[in-house]
Amino acid sequence: MTETSEKAAPEEIRAVPVRHYGRWVAGVVILLLAVIVGRSVVTNANMQWDVVGDYLFNDRVLRGLQNTLILTVVSMLIGVVGGVVLAVMRLSPNPLTSGAAGLYIWLFRGTPLITQLVIWYYFALFYPRLGLGIPFGPEFVSANTNQLITQFIAALLGLGLNEAAYMAEIVRGGIQSVDEGQIEAASALGMSRAKTLRRIILPQAMRVIIPPTGNETIAMLKTTSLVVVIGYFELMTSVQQIYAQNYKIAPLLIVAALWYLFMTSVLTLLQRQIEKRFARGTSRAVPQRRNWASRMFGFRGADTTGGLAR
């Protein structure tokens, strides 16, 4: 007797996605709160949005904004260069070199930045004149400290030297993240310590160094407002001078906040582009992107690149 019946094909498995009702509730609550807060801010007469619009591009505000950007860029350059030097010194096998770097980091991280700014501004109280010469001998160059350390120089010294202490620890962590085997391989090839650092260690350490450095840059942009204690003219100083004359405190503070938000947003975008550049060739080079519904509610639909989300 022949078998006339065939085996029935298995039924297609129908996957039912898990419902995340908590995410739906959280999303609705967040949207509702955003609408309430947004409406309150826009319709609040005390915000005086017309005054905000009048002073947003005021000449004094823009001049203060320019000085803020200059302080941020130059201070970060001092901090990054100083941080690399201090990190290398800190990792040196020479105890004097390592100890000097450790003492510097301890001193500048252990005292408030606002105190350092004031000390640099009044540095003439400690040293009325600054000179360069032979120890216990004649001075070749000498200058009045008050004339040498202006408000701008005091702001750069306070911000830049303080940042160097923090950048030193960031760079040191990045350098130590590189596998020691690569350092040994470079040494076996006869590469000098400086060449190994420049061509092997730092390029790989940048993947670890860039994200916190971007955060430090954004923090520096906002930290420049502390130079108001020594009277240097920057964004917050310009705003304070204006509302001291017209008593429009609330709208002018909003003007300053809007400019800070704009600049930090630009710096955030630049940081992401730099991170992508240094992440090339790694698993982090092309991060997975999902649409807004997926991020908020957990949907696993199509991603923004046109492919299927995993």
Brief summary of the model shown:
The protein is mainly alpha-helical and 310 residues long.
Characterize the structure shown:
With about 300 residues, the chain is mostly helical. It has a domain at about 70-130 and about 140-230: MetI-like fold, CATH 1.10.3720.10. It is about 65% helix and about 5% strand. The protein is built from 12 helices and 2 strands. It has helices at about 20-45, 50-55, 60-90, 95-110, 115-120, 145-150, 150-175, 180-190, 195-225, 235-245, 250-280, 290-295; strands at about 130-135, 140-145. It has a two-stranded antiparallel sheet. It starts with 20 loop residues before the first helix and ends in a 13-residue tail after the last helix. Belongs to the binding-protein-dependent transport system permease family. This is Amino acid ABC transporter permease. Pfam families: BPD_transp_1 (PF00528). GO terms for molecular function: transmembrane transporter activity. Keywords: Amino-acid transport, Cell membrane, Membrane, Transmembrane, Transmembrane helix, Transport.
Architecture of the domain at 68-132 and 141-232, according to CATH?
A: Orthogonal Bundle
Major sheet: 2 strands, antiparallel
Report the structural category: mainly alpha
Question: So what's the overall shape?
Answer: flat
Strand fraction: under 5%
